[in-house]
Amino acid sequence: MNLEIEGKWALVCAASKGLGRGCAEALVADGVNVVITARGDAALQATAEALRAFNPAAQVVAVAGDITTPEGRAAALAACPQVDILVNNAGGPPPGDFRDWDRADWLRAVEANMLTPIELIKAVVDGMAERGYGRVINITSSSVKAPIDTLGLSNGARSGLTGFVAGVARQPRLASRNVTLNNILPGFFDTDRLRSGFTKAAETSGQSIDDVSAARRNTVPAQRFGSPQEFGALCAFLCSQRAGYITGQNLLIDGGAFPGTY
User: Fold this and answer.
1) What pTM was estimated for this model as a whole?
2) Distances in whole angstroms, Cα of residue 6 to Cα of each of 10, 14, 24, 75, 241
3) Which Gene3D superfamilies match (predicted)?
4) pLDDT tens, position by position, 117-163
C-alpha cells in the first residue's frame, strides 16, 4: 500500500530505541524525513546512522536533548523544516504505591506524559492546518483503557492527555483541514523497558527472569510480546493519507490482552 507520505517531515520523540525507534523506522521506510530526539546522544546517533542506511533517500536529523524541557522542545522543533507528522513519546513514570508519591512525583509525571505532548501539539497543529495535512500520534499506554494499580502516575497523566486530545481532535478547523490526532495504546512490547521491568520483578520475587517473562507472556492471548516494528507499522498507517478519516481515537495494540468488548 502506498501511504502517500514520501517527502513529509516528522518529529519523533524518544526515538533512539523501543517504540519510538519502531515508528521512526516505519516512517523512514516510506520515505519520510525525520528528526529524532532522545536524551542519550550515543544511542541516538547510532539509531540515526541505522535509519540512514535503512533508506538513504530519507533525511535523518538527530537532536539530543530532554523533550520535557522548553529548551529540548525548542531545539527539536528548530531542526525540523516543518512538522507534518508529530509522534509524541516519553518514558513512563516509575511504578509504585500512590501513598509514597509526593507532589513533585506527580508534577514530573504530568510534565512528561501530559504537558510536554500538549506543548508540542500546540506548536505544530495550526501550521499543519494551513498546509492541509497533519498527523499527531501520541504513544500512551494500554493502562489508559485498563488502569494498572501500580502505575498510578502513568494512569493519571496519560488519561489527562487522552481527554485533551479527544477535544482538540474534533475541532473542525483541524479535522476539516486533514489534521488528525490519535493515540496508540501499547500493551506488552519487547523493549528494553519491558525487560528492565522483568529484571526488577525477578529481584523482588526471587524468580528467574525467564519465569517472570513467561508468566507475563501467558497473560497475552497472542502468547507473545509485540515487536517495535509492528507498532511502527500501525503508526505509519495512521500517519498516511489513507487514514485521514480516523481522528480522536485510542487504538489498542496489545495482542488481545484487554478483556473488554469496547
Assistant:
1) 0.95
2) 11, 22, 13, 24, 10
3) NAD(P)-binding Rossmann-like Domain (3.40.50.720)
4) 999 999 999 999 999 999 999 999 998 998 888 889 999 999 999 99
Q: What is the distance between the terminal CA atoms of the chain, rounded to a whole angstrom?
A: 29
Query: Angle 103-110/152-168 helices, nearest 10 degrees?
Result: 40
Place of cell 522548553: 70
Q: Per the structure block, which three cell numbers stand in for 151?
A: 502505575
In angstroms, rounded to a whole number, what is the distance separating the alpha carbons of residues 253 and 196? 21
Q: Specify whether the CB–CB gap between 148 and 220 falls below 8 A.
A: no
CA dihedral for 51, 39, 88, 140, sign (positive or negative)? positive
List, as one string, the DSSP characters of 192-260.
Answer: HHHHHHHHHHHHHH---HHHHHHHHHTTSTTSS-B-HHHHHHHHHHHHSGGGTT--S-EEEESTT----
